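Usage example:
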Amino acid sequence: MLNVAVDPAKVPGLVVEKSTGYWGGVGQRFLRDKVAMLTAAIVIILLLLAIFGPLIAPADPYASSILKRLKPIGFPGYPLGTDELGRDMLSRLIVGTRLSLFMGITPVLLAFTIGSVIGIVAGYAGGPINTFVMRTIDIFYAFPSVLLAIALSGVLGAGITNSLISLTIVFIPPIVRVAESVTTQIRSRDFVDAARASGANAFTIVRVHVLGNVLSPIFVYSTSLIAVSMILASGLSFLGLGVKPPEPEWGLMLNTLRTAIYVQPWIAALPGVMIFITSIAFNLLSDGLRTAMEIKN
Amino acid sequence: MLSFLLRRLIYTLPIMLGVALVCFALVHLAPGDPLVSILPPDASAELQEKLRELYGFNKSYPEQFLRWIARALQGDLGTSIASGRPVSEEVWRAVGNTLRLAAVATLIGFIFGSLFGFVAGYFQNSWIDKAASLTSVLGVSVPHYWLGMVLVIIFSSTLMWFPPSGAGPNGSTDWSWDWEHMNHMILPAITMSVIPMGIIARTVRALVADILAQEFIVGLRAKGLTNVGIFMHVVKNSAPTSLAVMGLQLGYLLGGSILIETVFSWPGTGFLLNSAIFQRDLPLLQGTILVLAMFFVLLNLVVDVIQTMLDPRIARG
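Running the assembly step on the lines above writes:
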């Protein structure tokens, strides 16, 4: 019996380059994309602020002072001034990162989980189940997203949980649509037919052959919703339908500082700058991920 | 074409019914008694019963829904609990104000959005393209209610060029096309136009890039067509999709104007929704959401039909 296996390492002059695979390529493309790297850095800084904010903040974000209300930017001891209750703006902006990011990202995560399940089931099942699910989704799609979010929050009442519920409901329909459409495409591919012919049941086919192919596009699409969700979540707080005082959250801070725009206009505008930066960073990061993962619209 | 229209209409009807059902269910999700805001705490059981009957809250849900639909079809959306006036009257006045603001904003957004999109698509990867792409990213990322505040800070409280709030002089809520009123519209319209501008710029850029890469453009060039002639072909080919996007954006602005209307105290549907929510005026809330959502559904229908008329390939596809 001849041993035909050749160890490439022992063949002189033969250089074998190890294939980096799909994810290696994604990583390389992402690392070469300067804009994506910059926005990834901003997002990481924001996440660090969200985690360690209370430790970094120079002052107590809840400590108010009647004497030091609405002090200008650069006031001794208050680098970014104070708000309408005399609380340190810098500390409130830093500590507010946690709640603001939480309010923006959680609905997308929840909607990603629920929407993917519904969409993949509808896409894989096809037939009447697909028709029923997609027509139901069409009805929710018939509402402009801001209107639906505000109507739901308005009816449920202000508060963190209610905001999360209404925003999750708003983001499920678009994610279901994407999940359904990519699953329908994958389902008609030959390897799925082959798996079915070899006796695999639906659950195994979805787990082994479908999930790996559909999760990336659904995930990338969902990341593009984070920026929208940030703006909507702080918008709800801005209307008084989200986070309740005295919690530091950027949208709520904009709301309570709105009356101060004739006294300290630039302090009143500060929380919006944070929302703006976060939203730009997530938008560009999502674009970078899409390019790196070679996903078409 | 006719069969497409018919199919599209038949498809819209169940959606409208579903939308009405969601509006109805939405309001009945509300915790607590819908009459709590007008009933004095010491109201007698008899008075409570009487009011409940007057507003129809004593019937079963399916019966309430059918009665509500039947009335809504005749233009009767019930009576506002807070003001006691017919909901339809309040909604129609507010819809006019919102529609004007949203239409002007969409127009501004469309003009500048397509301009940026065309330039960016024509000069791909040049600095103009990058600047236009950056503008559109900023446009879709900006929290528009905050942008409204910043514009008020700059143009109202600092430069004093435009009024900071309201739709007309002395808090007038009726509209006329004179300078006094238009002056009030400038800031909210610009604020609102930023969202459709970013989205339209992105869409048009992708469209133009796509069209320019197609073979018929090479053919036209080979035929000796001037750049202007080719440009006309690009416009013609990108028109159906960009007009469709514009139509949908108008719909989103109608429903999403509440934040901007709050910043500028614009007397439109957003303002109405806001007061309906905070006064727990359920009939008003239900009526406003229904009208806005129906508007959006109809707008979708109209956009689809116009798009098909401009590009008959869609109906066959």
